């Protein structure tokens, strides 16, 4: 099969939800002292990065829209988190957030695709060879809506019902993702 010229330059990506995937789920998390990386996060993401995946975080943060914390609080935590990744030789290409409450009727709140659409404006991504990893059904539905062909749902967050999962794969946590994605 002959590849089309533009396919050679597309990047494969991993789209990651934050809470429940990268860090321990704590409702409306915005304080650095409350942030706890899930065991295996650094090792797994480093391995994925080293095999050619670009890493992106897409996260619903309705606590901002609900007034529980501010965008400044989120940015402070995100800067700290990105520095922790950098200290472990992991590069997160872009972080996208939806700061809206569920009633705001925005286009970015998962399962809608606004956050992924914003990333696609900046990067040439091969969605057929990319993955989305989330802990909620809304994450998996977002991947389906965005035409991301590969999905993993982790049990390390909340809102997990295996019988209702539309994910291609289900695993305990990000620590097992390397067994699913050929690395």
Task: Provide a concise account of the structure shown.
The chain has 183 residues and is of the alpha/beta class. The chain has helices at 41-50, 62-65, 71-87, 114-122, 137-145, 177-180; strands at 12-16, 53-60, 92-98, 131-134, 150-154, 169-171. It has one domain: HAD superfamily/HAD-like (Rossmann fold).
Number of continuous helical runs:
6
Shape: globular
Summed up, the domain count is: 1
Task: Let me know the CATH homologous superfamily.
Answer: HAD superfamily/HAD-like
- Return the CATH class: Alpha Beta
DSSP strand (E) fraction?
Answer: 15-25%
List the uncertain runs. Answer: none
Count all strands and give the number: 6
How much helix is in the residues?
Answer: 25-40%
CATH architecture, by name, is 3-Layer(aba) Sandwich
Strand order of the largest sheet: 3-2-1-4-5-6
CATH topology: Rossmann fold
Give an overview in words:
- With 183 residues, the protein is an alpha/beta fold.
- The chain is built from six helices and six strands, in the order βαβααβαβαββα.
- 29% of the residues lie in helices and 17% in strands.
- A six-stranded parallel sheet has the order 3-2-1-4-5-6, sandwiched between helices.
- α5 links the parallel β4 and β5.
- The longest helix is centred in the middle third of the chain and has 17 residues.
- It is globular.
């Amino acid at each position: 099969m002959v590849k089309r010229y533009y396919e050679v330059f597309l990047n494969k990506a991993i789209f990651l939800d934050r809470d429940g995937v990268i860090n321990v789920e704590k409702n409306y998390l915005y304080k650095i002292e409350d942030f706890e990386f899930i065991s295996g996060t650094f090792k797994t993401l480093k391995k994925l990065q080293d095999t050619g995946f670009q890493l992106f975080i897409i996260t619903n943060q309705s606590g901002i829209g609900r007034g529980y914390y501010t965008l400044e609080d989120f940015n402070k935590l995100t800067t700290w988190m990105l520095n922790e990744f950098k200290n472990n030789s992991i590069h997160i290409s872009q972080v996208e957030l939806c700061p809206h409450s569920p009633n705001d009727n925005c286009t970015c709140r998962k399962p809608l695709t606004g956050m992924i659409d914003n990333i696609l404006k900046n990067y040439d991504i091969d969605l057929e060879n990319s993955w989305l990893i989330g802990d909620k059904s809304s994450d998996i539905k977002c991947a389906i809506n965005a035409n991301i062909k590969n999905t993993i749902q982790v049990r390390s967050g909340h809102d997990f019902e295996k019988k209702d999962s539309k994910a291609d794969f289900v695993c305990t946590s990000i620590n097992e993702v390397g067994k699913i994605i050929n690395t």
